[in-house]
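Q: What structure does this chain adopt?
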Amino acid sequence: TYAATLKAQADLRAAQAQLIALGSPNASGIATVRSPIAGVVTHVPVGPGGVVAEGAEIAEVSDASKVELVLEAPPSSLRLITVGAQMEARWTAGQAIEAVVVGVAPASTGGSAVVRARIAGAAPPPGTVVSARMVGGAGDALTVPSEAVQTVDGRTSVFVSEPEGFRVRAVVTGRNASGRTEVISGLDGGEQIAGAGAFLLKAELAKGEAEHGH
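A:
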């Protein structure tokens, strides 16, 4: 009937409009792809003329409001990292951002852990390499003279006094203020460490290693 024909034509136009809205090719054969979220396109694995299989990924879109940091934490600092803890992260541009730990999971090897942290405020571009440190209350923080902290074999260290002499001990440090450096882990507070002489001990250690190498 005429009424049924009109209804079929209306249904067809509605279906065509829905297909266009979903990205169906137009008369020129160009399809529009719409992301279900607002964000920044960070990766497009296909190019002009490429063939895309059904269900294949054609673009990655990052939602800037939900960007998280993914960090690897050494075993020595795991006791300080809990869900809800505050941290401060920096990247090569030198900017500092605050973040909150939202997840901690064991890494596959080495006893370290993978830490996920939610950023508060503007986020660095996806894929940016960052470093981070835990931020805690300063009232009960363990601190040492900043000159006591040295880099030995690529690790932040102090020289601890023992009966047979000074021994290098790796530490994890935090904030610096008024000539003092916060030690997050590696010391329990009862050790005696080298202060102003730490640099000389480091030089002697390097000299001894050089002589041993000859």
